[in-house]
Amino acid sequence: MFYRAEMKIGVQIQPQNTTMAALRASWMAAESLGVDSIWVWDHFYPLFGDPDAAHFEAYTLLATMAADTTSASIGALVSCNSYRNPNLLADMARTIDHVADGRFVLGIGSGWFERDYDEYGFPFGTARQRLADLERDLPIIKDRLVQLTPGPVGDMPILIGGSGEKVTLRLVAQHADAWNTFGPPDNFAAKNRVLNEWCAREGRNPADIERTVGISVDEVDQLEAYAEAGADHVIFMVGAPFDLDPVSQALDAR
Fold first, then answer.
1. Pick from 87, 85, 105: which is nearest to 12 by CA?
2. CA nearest 41: which of 114, 143, 109?
């Protein structure tokens, strides 16, 4: 296994079917390995396995992660825009960024997991409506970040997650510093090309948008393929009991 040395390696610690002690130990272990980024997801219930297993809320976890770690960038891959007022989300992100000494990445997407909406009383609507809400709220978030005192520690990046070619990738070209989607490599390459096309239409330098991809631990032998597809940053999605050996392999190869 070999791939370009500048590719970043991250890990998503999935906060389901686990304990708080195990979560904290896992992200501290990931940082000790030398990962570039550590993430959680933003849901209220497990996404697979036992639907009633233990589960923890993302932004409370991120504040804890910010205090427990010192070097890796941190964030939610990705925050659901529907779950928080956009002004409040900006303030929460800014506050965590200060706890993390400027390491926070504001990952955001339009949302999709219907159980979260139903159980917590958010209107699910349609995918088109949720995308329209995200398009409405992104400028509000960016404006609030400018108004906050103090503002973020540095230029806090905004990462948009998703692969919709008509709206989501346009919003990435308009607003994002980074973009995340999933594999396999040929799918990532195709979406990457569409994003480049949107950058050309929007007058955006495509090199200004970091390309990240969420991959399974079984894809550790595909890193070269993802690099060739245009990925700048691969993020291993790891569930309990948080076996970080594939992440360690990837870091050793780099």
1. 105
2. 109
CA distance 99 to 223: 32
**d(Cα 214, Cα 10) in Å, to the nearest integer?**
9
Q: At what angle do helices 168-175 and 185-202 cross, to 10 degrees?
A: 60
Task: Give the pLDDT of residue 75.
Answer: 98
The pair of three-digit structure tokens given for residue 120, joined into one six-digit string: 């917590």
| φ, ψ for residue 156, nearest 5 deg | -60, 120
Tell me: pLDDT of 2 over 70.
no
Listed residue (197, 156, 193) closest to 177, CA to CA: 156
Rounded mean pLDDT, 21-49? 98
Cβ contact 208:176 at 8 Å: no
pLDDT value at residue 5:
60
Q: 0.90 cut: is pTM over it?
A: yes
- Domains annotated on the chain, with CATH: 8-253 (3.20.20.30)
In the predicted model, is pLDDT for residue 1 greater than 60?
no
Report the number of secondary-structure helices (H) and strands (E) in the chain. 9, 9
- Largest Cα–Cα distance of the chain, in whole Å? 47
Q: Convert the pLDDT of each residue in 223-232 to its tens digit.
A: 999 999 999 9
Q: Which stretches does DSSP call E strand in the chain?
A: 8-13, 37-40, 73-76, 79-80, 104-109, 158-161, 178-182, 210-216, 233-238
Can you tell me whether residue 247 is helix, strand or coil?
Answer: helix
Helix, strand or coil for residue 58? Answer: helix
The mean of the pLDDT values for the chain is: 96
